[in-house]
Amino acid sequence: MKSIPERKTPVLIVDDDSGFLLTIGEVLKSSGMPEPALVSDSREVIGLIREHQFKFVLLDLFMPHLSGMELLKQIKEEFFNTECVIVTASDEISTAVEAMKEWAYDYLTKPVQYEKLVILIQRALERYTLRQGLSLYERKNTREDLADPDAFSDLVAMDNATIRVLRQVEMVAPTEYSVVITGESGTGKEMLARKIHELSQRSEGPFVGLNMGAVSESLFTDELFGHAKGAYTGAANERKGFFESARTGTLFMDEITDLDINLQSGLLRVIQEKEYYRVGSTKTRDVDVRIVVATNRDIFEEIKAKRFREDLFHRLNMFHIDIPPLRERKGDILPLAHYFLRRFARETHKDITQISPEAVQFLLAQDYPGNVRELKNKIASAVLREETADLSLEAFGPAGFLPAEQRIISAEALQQDRSRWRLEQVEKEHILMVLASVNSNKTQAAKILGIGRKTLLRKLKSYEDAPGGS
User: Fold this and answer.
1) Could you give the 3-state DSSP secondary structure of residue 264?
2) Which residue spans within 191-245 are E strands per DSSP?
3) Backbone angles phi, psi at 286, to 5 degrees
4) What is the pLDDT of residue 193?
5) Alpha helices in 102-182 (DSSP H)
6) Which pLDDT score, from 0 to 100, does residue 417 have?
7) Helix/strand/coil for 271
8) Exposure of 261 in the CB half-sphere (CA atoms within 13 A)
9) For the sheet containing 290-295, what is the strand order?
10) Thinking of the domain 327-408, which architecture would CATH place it in?
C-alpha cells in the first residue's frame, strides 16, 4: 500500500499493516493535523523522503525486508534532522535505548494511544523546526542577531559564543522541551535556566530550583513528591514536593549527575508516566512542569561509567545547551569586569570609574577556572582595596595574583613543570585555597565555589586518591 496526499505533508507513516496505516491516517486528519503519507513497503521509504522531504517518520519496528531499526539508521545517515519514532509491540527498555542511540526522537508501544501520538508528532515537528533554526547561528553573531535583544538586557553577553547560547535559549524557551544545560562551575547555568523560564509560556508559574546533590536517598521521594498527612510518624500535615510546588512552572534540577544511581529510576518513571503519588497516598497526581536540568560534569562520561542512566538522559535531553567556559569567550571578560566594577563601586560607595591598562591586560590573560563567579569575586575584592578612581593591578592583591615579575612564564619554566598549569591542577589549587580560607568548612567552601557539597567531597576524595595526593 502507498498513499501520498496531493497537498505536501510533513508526516510519513511506515507499517506493513495496511489497517494500522489507514487508522493512523484518519486519527491524524480528525485531530486537525495534515493528512500523512502512508507506505507499507519499507524499501520505498528512503526514495520517498528524498522526493518529498518528510520532517517526521513513524516506523514499525518489525517489518519484512527492512526492520524499523535498520530503516532508522538509513534515514539518520542521509536525513539526520528528520525526526523518527519507533513503534514496537514490546515495552522493553533495551529497545528504547537502542532506538535513542540511533537518534530516534522517541518510541511508542502498541496498542498506540492516539492522543499521545498526536502530541508526540506535534512536538517532533516543533523540534525539527528548532533544529533548522540552529543552523542560522553557526555563523558569527552579535546581539542584533537576537530576535528580541531587549529580553536579554539584564545579561552581559558580547562574545560570539555567548550570543550563540542566547540564540539557543530564544529557540527552545517557547517550547515545552526539557533542557539539559552543561558547563563548568561558575558559568551561569542556573541564570540561563531562569531566562528559559522567563521567556517561556510558563513564565507566570513558579521557578523552583533543587540541588540534586543535596537530596538524600532516604528523603528522595518525600522531597520530590511530598507526603500525605499521617504518611509516617511525624507527618502531622500534608506536604507538597518539588514537582507539586513547581506546578504550571519550571522545575530546575541542578547537579543532576549527583543524584544517586539507585534513585534515578524513580525520576525516570515519573517523567515517562507524567504522574506520581505522594508518600502515603493512593491518589495519582499529574506532572505539569517543564524540566530543566544542569550539570558541571561530562554527562556522557557519567553514562559510560554507569553512574548516570542512559535512558534517563535521553528522556531529559530534548534540547542541550553547553555554556562555554569564560576562557573560551574572551570577548565577555572586559564587559563583565566593567559590569561588576560599576556594581561593586555603587555598593561600596566608591567613585571608581575605569580599569587601568595594566589591570585590563592582566584580566585578559587569566584562565578563570572558576569562570564568571571567579571574575566577579576578584573584582569585588579589588574594589574594596582600591583607593583611587582607577581600578589598578595592585588592588587585586597578592592573594589572587602573582607579582609582575612572575606573570610571564617562560617556555623553559613550563617545560620543567607543565603539570602545574593543567586546568585540573589550577582547579585543585583554587579549591584547596578556598577551603583553607574558611578553615576547612566544606559546606561554606562549596557555597563560595558554587558547587554542591557532594561535588566538593568527591573532588577532595579524588585528590586524596591521586598519586602524591594531598
Assistant:
1) helix
2) 207-211
3) -80, 150
4) 97
5) 114-134, 160-172
6) 52
7) helix
8) 9
9) 207-211, 250-254, 290-295, 179-182, 319-322
10) Orthogonal Bundle (1.10)
Which CATH superfamily is 413-465 part of? Homeodomain-like (1.10.10.60)
Using an 8 Å Cβ cutoff, are 161 and 324 in contact?
Answer: yes
For residues 176 and 287, the answer to whether their CB atoms sit within 8 Å is no
Per-residue pLDDT tens over the stretch 239-258: 888 999 999 999 999 999 99
In the chain, domain spans? 2-113, 173-324, 327-408, 413-465
Any idea how long the chain is?
A: 470
CATH of 2-113, one of 2.60.40.10, 3.90.230.10, 3.40.50.2300, 3.40.50.300: 3.40.50.2300
Euclidean distance between CA atoms 242 and 294, whole angstroms: 16
- Indicate yes or no: pTM above 0.70: no
The residue with cell 486528519 is 29
Res. 134 pLDDT band, cuts 50 70 90 = low
Smallest Cα–Cα separation from 359: which of 341, 346, 342? Answer: 341
As a whole number of angstroms, the distance between CA 46 and CA 388 comes to 70
What is the tens place of the pLDDT at every residue in 60-89? Answer: 988 998 888 999 999 999 998 899 998 887
CB 382 within 8 A of CB 337: no
Q: Find where cell 602545574 sits.
A: 420
For 32-49, letters b (16+ CB in 10 Å) and e give ebebbbbbbebeebbebb
Grid cell in block for residue 85: 519514532
Q: How crowded is residue 343: how many other Cβ atoms within 10 Å of its Cβ?
A: 14
Q: Are 294 and 256 in contact (CB under 8 A)?
A: yes
DSSP 312-370: HHHHH-SEEEEPPPGGG-GGGHHHHHHHHHHHHHHHTT----EE-HHHHHHHHH---TT
How confident is the model over 402-424, as a mean pLDDT? 49
